[in-house]
Structures are given as structure tokens and as C-alpha cells.
Amino acid sequence: MPSHKDIDPWALRHQLPYLMMLQPEGERFRYRLVGTQVAEDMGQDFTGRVYGEHVPSSAYAHELIQQMCRVRDHAAALFSVTLCRTPSGQTHSAARLMLPMGEGDEVRMILQARAARLPVKNIDRDFWVGDAVGVIVGTVEVSKAEDVGRLAEDWLRTSAERAAMDAHFDRLTAGAHYHMDVERGIIVLKLTGRVTATHLVAMQGRARADHRFDARFGVLLDARSADLSALTPQEVHGLARSSPAAPAVPRAIVIAGEVRPGAAVQDLRRNGRPIGD
Question: Is residue 86 within 8 Å of 127, Cβ to Cβ?
Fold first, then answer.
């Protein structure tokens, strides 16, 4: 297993914008280096921050961290493809190569190369990957450069079909996820695809069991990428009563486009302060 000291920055000068170095710290991983292109895609430079803390979906963050644990614990080289959707509703695909580095059998650093297929060339805040909801499509352990080349070619071919990516993302991510912003005292609830009461009840249970959660946190419900037509007024009332948040905390709801006057949506409007895009 190579050491991070074996890396020749000059030899990798053309790839450096797409590279990250992450250092294991117990069960966490800290960014030690973030390439300029990765920082541009993410909307900010995460150098020094903890891996996964910026991800809106707790389930997606957990999957990303589990991949890193696999690299650390088994010195495995992994190639992974993810689909993400930005707050503006744009779907893009990213491919990542994770390589263990260290001394003997101990992984002391993980080199991660990341390339993304974005919907536009000049990205702004609405397209930043750092604010996107994501899902891991597949992960493969690799042992040869030829394997990486073949997988990268497959990714480039499949990610070129924008409509297919949108449909695939909708199938994989329909449901409800949350992100806990402990510093600001806010829990962000992200709804995507065709959402049912079952999705929302499950999310409430996960949030309630999260040790970081405080019932005094404000609640932001982001339904810009969601289809709420499956929710009945009775279900909305029941979900409001079973919310783990205290009744008096501030609440806001974000809904994209024109809001049709369906009964369930009207209840959502009365239980929060809608913010139109």
C-alpha cells in the first residue's frame, strides 16, 4: 500500500483540481486537501471540515461514511457512482475513486478523486453539489487501472442521458430525509419524489432517535422536489400531531412553482409559512 508521501504533485498536476485527501479520525474522516474543481462544484472549500457533515440527507451521509470505513478497514480501493439533485431540481452524476494510503496495513490517509457531470457549465448557488440530495447508485472494488478505465467509460456513457438520470434518481430517492444543523438549531426536512405518509413517519422516527436532535430546533420543510398528491388531510394532521419538534418552534415550508389548492397542501400551508420559489 503506497503512502501519501509517495504522491508526486507535479506528476498529478492536471488531476489535482479533482483530488481530495481525507484523514481517518476514529469513526470520522477529515478533509485535509480539497481540489479547486471539487470546491467549485461543492460551492465551498471543505478543507479542515468533517466528511459528510455538509450532506443534507442523513441517510446519504451515512452511506458515504460507510464507504470510507470500508476503505480504511480493508484497505480496499473503491469506484463509486452517485446521483444528486440540487435545490433547483437539476440532476447530475458523479464518479469517485477512493484509494487507501498508509504504512504497512494501517490506512492513514484516503485519496479520493471525484468527477461530476453537471447540467450547466457555469454553476451558481442553485447548482452547488454541497446543497444537493444524493444517492449511491453502485460501488465496485477495483484492483487494476484497467478496471477503473472501464468503469469510468461506462459512467461517462450512462451519465450522458439526462432524462434517464432524472428518472433513475426519482426511483431511488422518493421519500423523506433530514439534515440536522446543530449550530443554527434547525432541522431541514427534504422531500423528494412521490412522498407518502409512511415516508414521513419513518423520517420522524429517525430524527427522534438521532442523539443530536433537540425538540427546540426550528423546522424547515423543503418540498420543492416532491409530489405531495398522495397525502390526505387526515394524514397531514396526524403527522403534525406526531412531530418530534415542540409545538411552539418556528416552522417554514418551501414549495416550488404554483401551489395548487389541494386539501393536503392547504393544511401544510396553515401549519407553516410557505416560501414560493
Answer: yes
Cα separation, 19 vs 114, whole angstroms: 6
Residue 185 has pLDDT above 80, yes or no: yes
C-alpha cell at 67: 464507504
**Rg of the chain, C-alpha, whole Å:** 20
What pLDDT, in 10s, does the model give residues 123-153?
444 444 555 677 888 899 998 889 899 999 9
Cα dihedral 96→127→18→141 (10° resolution): 0
* Cβ neighbours of residue 188 closer than 8 Å, sequence gap 6 or more: 56, 178, 179, 180, 181, 220, 222
What is the model's pTM?
A: 0.62
Q: What is the phi/psi pair of residue 152, to 5°?
A: -65, -40
Q: What is the pLDDT averaged over residues 218-236?
A: 83
Q: Give the tens place of pLDDT for each residue, 40-90.
A: 877 788 899 998 877 766 677 888 899 999 999 999 999 999 888 776 667
**What 8-state DSSP symbol labels residue 84?**
E
Amino acid at 153: E
Q: Rounded distance, CA 165 to CA 207, Å?
A: 29
Q: Distance between CA atoms of 207 and 57, rounded to whole angstroms?
A: 11
> Residues for the chain: how many in total?
277
- From CA 73, how far away is CA 90, in angstroms rounded? 35
* Short-list 267, 276, 266, 271, CA closest to 247: 271
Domains of the chain: 4-172 (3.30.450.20), 174-276 (3.30.750.24)
- CA–CA separation, 108 and 45 (whole Å): 22
**For residue 227, what are the contacts with CB-CB under 8 A and spacing of at least 6?**
193, 194, 195
Query: How far, in Å, CA of 268 to CA of 277, rounded?
Result: 16
CB 230 within 8 Å of CB 196: yes
